[in-house]
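Progress against Task 2.4 (sequence-to-structure conversion) is shown through the following example record, which the project officer requested during the mid-term review.
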Amino acid sequence: MRQIAVRIIREASDQVIAEHGEGWMPAGDEIAAATDMLQRMRTIGTCSVETALARAMDQALQDELGAYVARAMAKGAESADRPESADRPESADRPESADRPESADGPQSSAPARSGRGLDAHPPRC
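Structure tokens generated for the chain above:
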């Protein structure tokens, strides 16, 4: 994070030097403009990092949820293959989703639903 911050501030410094030359010191109204530019750079940098983190968190959540569902389904399949499952009624071996009717689009998916939650549901406050 520190390296990202240094790069953003250096870019702002390079912009000032390109515009005004090395050693320039703002005076009068220029102080407010320079301060405003630095604050905008800080806001842009913070927003960029927040957005990147939100995307990474969404992906990590989807990956972990998918892995969890896969493990749960595998465990359910293992339980169904055991001999003691023969003593239970047939409906006990079916997942709950088997009782739901198929939609016009086909059978219900066992994959985690993407309900629009994530980056779109909670955009960064930038």
